[in-house]
Design goal:
This protein has about 400 residues and is an alpha/beta fold. The chain folds into three domains: about 80 residues, Archaeosine Trna-guanine Transglycosylase, Chain: A, domain 4; about 110 residues, Transcription Regulator spoIIAA; about 190 residues, Rossmann fold (3-Layer(aba) Sandwich), CATH 3.40.50. The chain contains ten helices and 20 strands. Strands 16-15-14-17-18-20-19 form a seven-stranded mixed sheet, with helices on both faces. It is globular.
């Protein structure tokens, strides 16, 4: 077991429920040989007073991810704590998404939001895709995978890289690690009434963006009797839900060949291919061509990838992002709707709204906010960690009067 002593003043955030101890907050760290796991860590303030217990990641900028507070019994093992919380997360989703319902694809475990820091698991029908995003979670994956399969009733699980392996000193592996039955390469799932083709072994993140599931339906409610432009369309979710809700036609634009193929396949699965046109192109070039045609749409969806991957990249990303919003606003009909999203915590709700205001001034197109959009309830977040609220969006009406 390890004991970490914090620098003066650095325990305050933890007293108020923040789940992370940063490297810069650590004054000293000592390891004592006993029967407990070497990464199981007692955290003390600068006076030696117990703050709580967590898991140590020696190579990470986040040295300790807390599991217990000062009033919790320290006789619990991390394996027991994690297992209990995974079972609770599975039971909650099982109540929200009962078998045989309209949806069988969702976030099963959402890291800190479910009290299991470093573990993200998405469910696709009978199959699970996990990301072991910290070294302590990676080292326990055999046991955690069995808990996940037993608690969820899923048939099999594979793991996908989360993108932080080097920072967390997680070993690189060839192939995809799995448990239970082999996970197929293609899975057809149900998402709010749509049949969606998911590729668990490839594609973005765990194979599909479950965080936008409910937003695809919310945005589609503005699509009736309107033409739709879906920028960065991915597998076509926004377009296809819009067509289900009565859109007259939808154009999906994405630069990825795999994304376009998936969108076209999903249109066929749902009998919507006649109303959907998928176009492989860079979004800025496609918008320039639509401007040259003076073409506008009753609903525009702008859901770009993470445009600010690091804190250092924010300053240089603002201008092209604002230009993207200007082009999106100008392709929206008067009294039409624009749904715009940001998937980076470095922008946040207020930052995205400020950027929309700035773009509105640049193109002299006023708007009003109709609806604010966040992930569904299967993506819980902690109020103490704003970084976990990474996805934010707005539906705005352009030139409403």
């Amino acid at each position: 077991m390890r004991t970490v002593k914090l620098k003066p003043g650095h325990a305050k955030a933890l007293w108020h429920g923040h789940p992370w101890v940063f490297a810069k907050s650590v004054q000293s760290a000592e390891t004592k040989s006993d029967h407990r796991a070497p990464d199981w860590t007692r955290v003390e303030d600068d006076q030696g007073q117990l703050v709580g217990h967590g898991l140590w990641s020696g190579a990470s900028a986040i040295r300790v991810r807390m599991l217990l507070g000062r009033d919790d019994p320290d006789t619990l093992t991390p394996e027991r704590i994690l297992g209990q919380r995974i079972r609770k997360a599975c039971a909650l989703r099982g109540a929200w998404f009962p078998p045989g319902g309209e949806t069988d694809t969702y976030r099963l475990v959402n890291a800190e939001g479910d009290g299991v820091p470093g573990l993200v698991v998405d469910r696709y029908g009978d199959w699970l895709v996990a990301q072991w995003a910290t070294r302590p979670i990676f080292d326990r994956r055999d046991g955690l995978a069995q808990v996940l399969l037993e608690a969820s009733g899923a048939r099999g699980l594979i793991s996908r890289a989360g993108g932080h392996e080097r920072q967390e000193a997680i070993p690189e592996e060839e192939g995809l690690w799995g448990a239970g039955e082999p996970v197929p390469g293609v899975v057809l799932v149900r998402e709010r009434g749509l049949q969606v083709e998911v590729h668990p072994r490839q594609g973005q993140k765990t194979g599909h963006y479950t965080d936008q599931r409910d937003n695809r339906v919310r945005v589609a409610r503005y699509a009736e009797d309107r033409d739709v432009l879906d920028l960065y369309c991915g597998s076509g979710g926004f377009s296809l839900q819009a067509l289900r809700m009565g859109a007259t036609h939808a154009i999906g634009i994405d630069s990825g060949a795999r994304a376009i193929a998936a969108a076209e396949a999903n249109a066929r699965h749902n009998g919507l291919e006649d109303g959907f046109h998928a176009q492989r192109a860079e979004v800025d070039k496609a918008l320039a061509a639509l401007k040259a045609q003076d073409r506008r749409f009753g609903l525009v969806v702008c859901d770009p990838p993470n445009l600010i991957p690091t804190r250092e990249s924010k300053a240089r990303a603002i201008r092209p992002w604002r230009e993207l919003l200007v082009r999106s606003l100008t392709r929206t009909e008067p009294e039409g709707f624009l749904a715009v999203f940001s998937c980076t915590p470095r922008m946040g709700r207020d930052g995205l709204l400020d950027l929309l205001r700035s773009a509105s001034r640049d193109c002299r197109l006023p708007f009003r906010v109709i609806e604010e959009l966040t992930p569904g309830r299967d993506h819980p977040v902690l109020p103490q960690t704003p970084a976990s609220r990474y996805l934010t969006g707005f539906v705005v009406q352009v030139r409403p009067w």
